[in-house]
Automatic annotation (TrEMBL):
It catalyses: 3-hydroxy-2-methylpropanoate + NAD(+) = 2-methyl-3-oxopropanoate + NADH + H(+). It comes from Pacificimonas pallii. The keyword NAD applies. Pfam families: NAD_binding_11, NAD_binding_2. This is 3-hydroxyisobutyrate dehydrogenase. PANTHER family: 3-HYDROXYISOBUTYRATE DEHYDROGENASE, MITOCHONDRIAL, 3-HYDROXYISOBUTYRATE DEHYDROGENASE-RELATED. Pathway: Amino-acid degradation; L-valine degradation. The lineage of its organism: Bacteria, Pseudomonadati, Pseudomonadota, Alphaproteobacteria, Sphingomonadales. The gene is mmsB. Residues 163-290 form the 3-hydroxyisobutyrate dehydrogenase-like NAD-binding domain. Belongs to the HIBADH-related family.
């Protein structure tokens, strides 16, 4: 049994911590929210009064926090001062590559092996233990992290050195944001040209326009497999989180001097959607905006 401190038990972290408990680990939980802590306690975690209390005596620390500023502050003020030497640190939050690298560097200086291990898969996958982890860190840190991450996911892939997990995550999500926007505007055009949506789906899904956004997550209700479109765009992956990831991708592209015009355009489109108050809806709801009317 491994003693694991888990910090950040929100929509994602709550399910992930529960799966660590199910795998037989002793999970010591801390969150700023009492409600989140109560849910974690009901799932079998031990409540800690502070992040430092959760970390003290733990073999590993997992964080699942909103953004880079939270991660940098929690590691600097709570984790590094309280952790035992050689404690394994795993940050599963989605954050900018620069912060991931600087926190991992500070961890290394303080003698802690660390991986950045952001996830693909949403709240349902976190609860079901079917996340995909993309992991940055040394081979030794990855080897220690893999069994812990496997208890929360279906795939654990070593992407490279520190920050490589975050780089893989934002590249994947930039591709997803751009293909979803392109899929939505294409379906809107097809309808306006008089094509039956199901007929066009049947053609494109076996032609060169096929993509995951079209055939696994179709943004039109009643077409393709079950998706958030069939539930009024509720649940799924919130448009605000897609915008967050597209902003991280734009920031990374600037720092790497990479041209990402399609990613940039997808970011502008999702910014318009979120500014219109639609940020909590699934990201495929952008079809309504591109259609100029409700989809269907
Ligand atoms: P969330 O807002 O539901 O949870 C974050 C939790 O962190 C909250 O409970 C908050 O109280 C807690 N927190 C913030 N600062 C803290 C601190 N200093 N100490 C302790 N707890 C603190 O967010 P979420 O949806 O669970 O997302 C978490 C991370 O996972 C984000 O980086 C997000 O981008 C990423 N992610 C989310 C999804 C998704 O579908 N929700 C999918 C993939 C990745």
């Amino acid at each position: 049994m491994t003693i694991i401190a888990f910090i950040g038990l929100g929509n994602m972290g709550g399910g992930m911590a529960a799966n660590l408990v199910k795998a037989g680990h002793d999970v010591r939980a801390f969150d700023l929210s009492d409600d989140a802590l109560a849910v974690a306690a009901a799932a079998g975690c031990t409540r800690a009064a502070s992040a430092a209390e959760a970390v003290r005596g733990a073999d590993a620390v997992v964080t699942m926090l909103p953004a880079g500023s939270h991660v940098a502050a929690v590691y600097k003020h709570d984790v590094f001062p309280a952790a035992n030497p050689d404690t394994l640190l795993l940050d599963c939050s989605t954050i900018d590559v620069g912060t991931a690298r600087s926190v991992a560097g500070a961890a290394g200086t303080a003698g802690f092996p660390m991986v950045d291990a952001p996830v693909s898969g949403g709240i349902a996958a976190a609860a079901a233990g079917t996340l995909t982890f993309m992991v940055g860190g040394s081979p030794g840190a990855f080897a220690r992290a893999e069994p812990i991450l496997s208890a929360m996911g279906k795939a654990v892939i070593h992407a490279g050195d520190a920050g490589a997990g975050q780089a893989a995550k934002i590249c994947n999500n930039m591709l997803l944001g751009a293909t979803m926007a392109a899929t939505c505007e294409t379906l809107a055009l097809a309808q306006k040209l008089g094509l039956d949506p199901q007929t066009f789906y049947d053609i494109a899904s076996v032609s060169s326009g096929q993509s995951w956004s079209l055939t696994s997550y179709c943004p039109l209700p009643g077409v393709g497999p079950d998706s958030p479109a069939d539930r009024g765009y509720a649940g799924g992956f919130a448009a605000a989180l897609m915008l967050k990831d597209l902003k991280l991708a734009a920031e990374a592209a600037r720092s790497a001097d990479a041209a990402t015009p399609m990613g940039g355009l997808a970011k502008e489109l999702y910014q318009i959607l979120v500014s219109a108050g639609e940020g909590a809806r699934d990201f495929s709801a952008i079809i309504e905006m591109l259609n100029g009317r409700p989809a269907g």
